[in-house]
Please model this.
Amino acid sequence: MYVLPSGERGFSVTDDHGKDRAVLKLDADKSVSVSLNDEQGKTKAVVRLTKLGAPEIQLTASDGKLLWGTPQSAKAK
Model:
């Protein structure tokens, strides 16, 4: 668990090698997200609710390119 001076706070699940594999985060702007990471700690899937409650989803390939995302999440990139 962590809390930053910016107001961001969250919880992460770490594997045996110290890599964050799952992160639940409340951002300073009051948006909330769940991120799922691969064995290298790279984010592969994100489900997010913006501060206005709009849902966003992003799926990322191994090379870091966006595989699929909701229209709002594609604009954010």
